[in-house]
Amino acid sequence: MFFRVFSFLLVVAAASGAFAADGLAKLKAEAKKGSAVSQCNLGVMYKNGVGVERDFKEAIRLFELAAKKNYAPAQFNLGLMYEEGLGVAREPHVAVGLFEKAAAQNHATAIFNLGVMRAKGEGTPKDVVAGQKLIARAAEMGLAEAQKSMGDIYYRGDGVERDLKKAAALYKKASAQGSDAATSNLGVIYTRGDGVEKDPKAALQGYPPAQYNYAILCEKGEGVERDQAEALKWYTAAAEQDYAPAQFALGEIYKSGRGVARSQELSAKWYGKAAKQGHAQAQFNIAYNYANGEGVERKPEEAFKWYSEAAANGDASAQYNLGYAYDTGFGVAVDAEKAVNWYRKAAAQDLPQAQHALALKYESGQAVLKNIAEAINWYEKAASQNYAPAAFNLALLYSWGVTGGVKRDDAVAVKWYQVAAKQGYPAAQYALGSFYAEGRGAPRDLARASVLLSLAHDGGEADAKRILEAVQKNMSPNDLERARKELADERDAAKAR
To answer: What would the pLDDT profile of 187-198 be if each residue is shown by its tens digit?
Structure first.
């Protein structure tokens, strides 16, 4: 797989606090005088919002001024704006033209990006061979990302004869220049002995992603002897260097007690560290810890804070829990409209709990206009994922029918009761058992009714016993025997779930 370089080549040090107002004024003055270097660097600042307010249009204007002077870095940066669609409509073919101009002046990163676009057929006819030649040229010029990409190409044998030694050599060159991805790949090939002498620890070099990857190999026993203690050692080494995936992994290990004494406190500690670095799953988990007082003091407000962070990072479960918090006033004032908004975000990611919650809102008309058709739509989405509460509520709508919303349809009701009942949902087992006893929506089947009502009673539906006794009085010996066997099987299956 090819990855383009999206870094801008900032020639002057504009990102630090040391770049004072007078430095910015001087840069603007030089740009106004027509300095292509200053125009390009100032454009970079406007693109990234460094020292000035971010302004893509101004960045493009400055890049264009410098590019007209045939200044390769400006041509490259302007090409990126068109490739990414920043401040302009996305036009890959325009980006290609600009990269070509910069490449003609031996701009290594432009050569590399042009190679990637040719290989993928973006903005130009697809030509993998020509694309790889350009990537190889950039690699020979010493561009780390190109060296790493050529390493990938030789490692997989993409359009070339597979050559593990060449791959290893290219990864080493890129790693020496600080390429994290290349260093990580070195860790893999040293572990497997691909093109190098097998030495799993040779590429760790105190580099957290490589330590983390090596820990995974130790834990799974891939290429090395399976060793949970060794995995823990390297997860910890990476985690102590603030590598969030390793911190999250430690949280999981201490939560489950995988090769260590189970500790909710240590689990919460590592989840918390990863959460502070923006790890969405860790943010969700530490929120759960605070919500339930697991490994930390129960703090609804802190739970709400971390659910908010995880939700903003796109975690669907966190979005649902945030909606629930607004719905119930957990750690925040009740706000039904905000609850619906967060349920909607999670539902759009196909989280069945959120789809069910949204369906309930449309059925009841709380914070939204009552709309039975929309309720059914969301119930069906959740029920189709075997979410029992949604299947049960959907069955209820068809069992009774709703004026102006849905017609009563016992056969459809049976279909959805069956979905919920198979998940061990007692209320659905009770309702479905009653339907079979009456022959409603399906042929009358007293044996099946007996099984379902027994399971419903096992699950806490006390009223099921009364109907069960009435059903069993009318069952034949064959039906009783069949029900006995089926009930034993289903109880065993329920225990295994």
So the answer is: 777 767 777 777
Query: Domain residues for 96?
Result: 1-141
**225: which DSSP letter?**
-
Contacts of 136 (CB under 8 A, 6+ apart): 115, 146, 150
pLDDT of residue 205: 65
Residue 497 lies in a domain: yes
404: left (phi over 0), alpha (psi -120 to 50) or beta: left
Q: Is 481 inside a domain boundary?
A: yes
The CA distance from 312 to 310, in Å, is 5
Give residues with Cβ within 8 angstroms of 281, minimum separation 6. Answer: 248, 310, 315
CA 31 vs CA 18, 38, 56, 441, 459: distances in Å: 20, 5, 17, 79, 76
pTM of the model: 0.66
- Per DSSP, the three-state class of 361 is helix
The count of domains in the chain is: 2
Q: Do 179 and 147 form a contact (C-beta atoms < 8 A)?
A: yes
3-state helix, strand, coil in the chain (%, to 5): 70, 0, 30
pLDDT in tens, 405-433: 899 999 999 999 999 999 999 999 999 99
d(CA 495, CA 497): 6
Say which CATH number the domain at 14 has: 1.25.40.10
Predicted confidence at residue 287, as pLDDT, reads 97
Q: What is the DSSP string of 406-444?
A: B---HHHHHHHHHHHHHTT-HHHHHHHHHHHHHT-SS--
Between the CA of residue 119 and those of 127, 133, 151, 431, what are the distances in Å?
Answer: 5, 10, 16, 60
CA distance 322 to 305: 9
Taking the C-alpha atoms of residue 431 and residue 439, their distance in angstroms, rounded to an integer, is 12
User: Phi, psi (5° rounding) for residue 392?
Assistant: -65, -45
| Banded pLDDT at 217 (limits 50, 70, 90) | confident
Specify the pLDDT at position 5: 43
368 DSSP assignment: S
Q: What is the distance between the alpha carbons of residues 141 and 82, in angstroms, rounded to a whole number?
A: 25
The one-letter code for the residue type at 32 is K
What does the alpha-carbon distance between residue 82 and residue 89 come to, in Å, rounded to a whole number? Answer: 7
Helix (H) or strand (E) holding 480: helix 477-496
